[in-house]
Amino acid sequence: MIGERIKNLREKKGLSITKLADLAGVSKSYLSYIERNMQNNPSLQVMAKIAAPLDSNIEYLLGEDHLPKLQEEEVLDEEWRSLIKNAVDEGMSKGDFQALKDLIRSNKWKEGAPAEGDGANEKKKTSNIIILHIDN
After folding, report:
1. Dist. CA 132–CA 119, nearest whole Å
2. Residues of the chain whose pLDDT is less than 70?
């Protein structure tokens, strides 16, 4: 059932198995095993990685009847819509948004991870420099 739902969502979004594997950060062969029901027990982490680019969630992949329905008006106010529109107008792609989201998630994780060595309960201080290079 999980594999069938993933495959159906992937095909509805027009994604190849290779593209979904890349977006989800899982191997193409492992994703193929899941879709063909040869792997029936993927971890919740893997399922979350796969669900995100499919605009789905773990609950749906596990058998919930309906996909989550989010109304744009409930999630995005006018300021958010304007920021996103400007970013897209300036050439930012869905992949760029995903990379930025992943970077923010990684930074939040790093901030919450204990530092190595003495003072393991103190938060690790990090700084990041982001350099964007966009070819026209």
Report:
1. 35
2. 66-76, 113-136
